[in-house]
Structure prediction request, 243 residues.
Amino acid sequence: MNKDPSSSPFPPETGHLPSGLRIRDVVLGMNDGMVTLTSFLGGISGAPLSHTSILYAGLMTSLAGSLSMGAGALLATQSQNDLIRREIARERWEIAHVPELEKQEVYNLFISFGLPPEESHHITERIVADPEVWHRFMVREELGIHEEAMESPVKSAATLSLSFMAGALPPLLPYFFFPKAYEAFSVALVLSLLTLAVTGSIKSRLAGESPFKGAGEMILLGGAAAAAGLFLGEILPRFFHLS
Prediction:
């Protein structure tokens, strides 16, 4: 029985994710920036430092973290793209120099899909008749690589870097308006949790899930990471008489 597509529990199908949608990098960068700054500020807010020194240290930590995330994303994406290109070139070489072995691999793939031998043989002959189709098939089905999925290193670096900075702003902003460090940090905690909830709800809405689910996940995971950072940055030094 056919149903109306509008009754589907999933978001409308677009064929592919919109260009430039990097929800993974955005969530990673914002969460990292927020947890890093919250933990750092919590660790130094109780130290005998001037308010200006704490604010300056927070700004420098935000900038350093943002640059570090961007550089890491650039190098990681470049390395991944280089690996993909090498494997694509290897597959083209194998088709040109060891075609019988590659042909057998195509046949074995269809057998593994559950197709009968005769049908697998027929489809294999159709595929290997065109070297470009053959190469594309091997790259996608044997290697699991989609050339279109290769990411731009610059875009990935910019997304993570800016996301880190955006995540670092909520815990840092109160220090511009509250002269006392403990007051600023209390507001910073509230702002950080609210921002985590908003980020998580947006992530879930994009995935077609309940926004409350994403908000809860981000608060629990991000909050736990920040609490661990606070423990390491403030409680442990006192325990070992380092402050």
Summary: The chain has one domain: 23-39+50-237. The longest helix spans residues 51-97.
